[in-house]
Amino acid sequence: MITHPAYMVEPWCLRETTLNLDVLSQSESVFALANGHVGWRGNLDEGEPHGLPGTYLNGVYEFRPLPYAEAGYGYPESGQTVIDVTNGKVVRLLVDDEPFDLRYGRLHRHERLLDFRTGLLHRTAEWTSPSGRGIRVRSTRLVSFTQRAVAAIAYEVEALDDEVRVVLQSELVANEQLPRAEGDPRAAAILESPLVPEDTAAHGTRIRLLHRTARSGLRVGVAAQHVVEGGERTAYTSESSDDLARVTVTSVLRPGQTLRLEKIVAHGWSAVRSAPAVRDQVDAALAAATSSGWQGLVDDQRGYLDDFWARADVEVDGDAEIQQAVRFALFHVLQAGARGEARALPAKGLTGPGYDGHCFWDTETFVLPVLTYTAPQAVEQALRWRYTTLPAAQERARQLGLRGSAFPWRTINGSECSGYWPAGTAAFHINGDIADAVVRYIRATDDEAFEKEVGLPLLVETARLWRSLGHHDHHGDFHIDGVTGPDEYSAISDDNLYTNLMAQHNLRAAAAVVERHPDLAAALGVDDEETADWRDAATRMSLPYNEELGVHEQSAGFTGHQLWDFTRTREDQYPLMMHFPYFDLYRKQVVKQADLVLAMCLRGEAFTPEQKARNFAYYEQLTVRDSSLSACGQAVMAAEVGHMRLAYDYLGEAAMMDLSDLEGNTRDGLHIASLAGTWFALVVGFGGMREVDGLVAFSPRLPEQMVRLAFNVQFRSRRLRVEIVDNEATYTLIEGECQDILHCGEKLTLTQGKPQSRPVETAEAGPAPEQPAGRAPAHRGRMVGHLEAEATHS
Ligand code: BGC
After folding, report:
1. Does the N terminus or the C terminus of the chain have fewer Cβ atoms within 10 A?
2. Most informative mutation of 355, 359, 360 for ligand 1 (most atoms within 8 A of CB)
3. CATH number listed for the domain at residues 548-686+766-794
4. Does 401 score more than 70 pLDDT?
5. Which CATH number among 1.50.10.10, 3.40.50.970, 3.30.420.40, 3.40.1550.10 corresponds to the domain 358-543?
6. Nearest residue to 508 via CA among 468, 529, 537
7. Are 103 and 447 in contact (CB under 8 A)?
8. Which of 88, 144, 157 is nearest to 294 (CA)?
9. Which of 138-147, 176-185, 335-344 has the lowest mean pLDDT?
């Protein structure tokens, strides 16, 4: 049984009942609040102690040098890194001359609770100062889903036993000091003092700071307004300087008396607007939020989330920990994308500086599928962002000697930031991943305006890339040579099967969309000859297969490579890339993360059931899961080929990635793709959800540890509910006109008020496949009732 050291297991919230300073940074990621535009790490209100302070605005970054020991043609000249912008979270408290600092005095109680239904982060602390003054602090925080520039805090301090003099300092802090990054290359390069002051103001309870980034030239503004409620002996002042604006409230509290401060914070930024315009932008956002008031923001947050959960909730009976984890995951996936509005969706969302705040294929392949069926407007915006970066991708393709567009492996502003070619630019599959997300979104929403304006150019440009990147051999077969697939332990290989299958899908989808919109396509210069070329390349796409072993090859020749010696690899030598040279990983059969197995999830129709079973078993024994993106794909395929126990264990790994800090780097931010993978494993894995010929299809099957699984999905303006219990699946149309679906290949026509049930098919699986020595996923126990507590917050 996996025990849970830090958090209580509850269905609708995450509760931490004691404060452990050793894992403060992890908890700051886990308790981060964001809306896709603004991100506040879960730092303590008083600013210190902290693991890693963090306030992020999506799209705000600074350039940083990318020095090369040996430079080469086409290497990106500079990188981009997310920066910590002005911190509006800070509310310091002085109790009779002593700072409220949890490292001193006596902490009797400390609880934090993130409520997935209200979107509020609550904190309660009871503390006695070193000189013996007892207080209770209660704070509640939100980052608004309905007003994207806005975050807010309600902070209360209560005197417990004696009269106390308290001082609250509510601050905006720019260029705050950050701890130095450690040696892990995945952690962000931290830039010191990235913000240049431009303007500052303090009037009454209202404060503002305006800054600009030195090199990227982005203007960043933040303003705060306060409402103070205290006794007669309460007074306030405000002041501001370059990097600090502050409202100071003083009061004397009798025992039982409370001082309350409501702080509403508005953030804004712009690459083009002048200082006065950005000033006015944050002032206006603040005016709107102040007119809603604290309670208005709280009510709107609940309304927004009620709507989200009605579309997205997943219910799990039989494993309380997974129930909590999937809601935690969905909440954070929503936070990453909800109000991104034509900006990138970074691998860590806005929860930390890991991976320099870059966006990868994680977004299109793992995160957007979840949002497509639960919050499609967020997908539209994320793909619109890709569309706005087309000029940079076209320019990159030209630089590489290619046609069409070459989207960056990692980026914030749309230009390539990867300085490591083999696992960067060579991972061309990102172009197919973007196309796949476009196709999925269009199919699930019928959004024709999007298809014409955004989908068509994205599909055309990526198809052009594939056509120019690949070539027909003298038999006419189409090959894409010298690319890196999802498995980063193989690089620059020929005919990576995943890449080729995604490219094939991309080429066909582009030809189909051109057919639907011939005039618009003609305006992009597409003619019949070009689409015929795409179709031909797709038809002749080479898909390497080893007849002797009866398995597909991850890439041409892969199965002929020497096997990695797992028996001589120690447990502490994982992740392998931190302990072995890449050249050795590259030339052996060892797989970092699901690659061919992921291809079988996304392009299932390209394989027979027998091929799936054999491929799965073959690649299981090579896959070490040195990436958090691996387990969910393995869960889906394990379920499909009938290894339900294994699928369940992989689900556990994806689900607990951050709650149990399985990779030891949750401090740098959450693994948003792995969180999304929790939904993936449950809905696509155990729900068996796929799209078949324009219909949404299910082949549900539960592991014996799970008693019931129910989920809602949105498809073509309909809301469906699927419930699997007692070997029966029930489909209900909750909203929208009648809808055809497939249950294990049988067509069912659903109408509202008439649920339909069908028996679940059982799986016949062969012997359980093996993983590399020591790399089997942790065996999940049955979690019924384990640490389960009643939810006390509604
Ligand atoms: C994985 C990539 C992933 C990146 C960001 C790497 O470790 O191998 O597939 O895109 O992390 O999550």
Report:
1. C
2. 360
3. 1.50.10.10
4. yes
5. 1.50.10.10
6. 537
7. no
8. 144
9. 176-185
